[in-house]
Amino acid sequence: MATTTEKKATPEALPLVGQSRWHQIEPFLPFSRETWRKLCRDGKAPTPTRLSERCTVWNNTEIHRWLADPLHYRTEEPCAQITKRTNAPHPG
User: Fold this and answer.
1) What is the three-class DSSP state of 84?
2) pLDDT class for 76, splitting at 50, 70, 90?
3) Is residue 74 a part of any domain in this protein?
4) Residue-wise pLDDT tens digits, 29-47
5) 91 inside domain
6) Domain membership flag for residue 12
């Protein structure tokens, strides 16, 4: 029984707008998921948004902002928890 190895295509660029999951931004980051999580937690990388229990996304605009200057990037407010998306109606 022969096994085949399929190579996943590496994306050439991250879209400028929208949101991406970890596997979509991973090719552009030079470290592990855990290191990225710690940077996000400390406010040194974009804060993720939790869409569901198993789905976390990052804002592509913020990822590009971080990629442009990772040493000086700071979020508005460091956050110990992942931002949760709510289905509550928008006020206004």
Assistant:
1) strand
2) confident
3) yes
4) 999 999 999 999 999 999 9
5) no
6) no
92 domain-assigned: no
3-state SS record for 2-55: CCCCCCCCCCCCCCCCCEECHHHHHHHCCCCHHHHHHHHHCCCCCCCEEEECCE
Closest CA to 39 of 16, 73, 7: 73
Range of the domain at 79: 19-84
Structure tokens at 5: 């190895």
Question: Number of folded domains in the chain?
Answer: 1
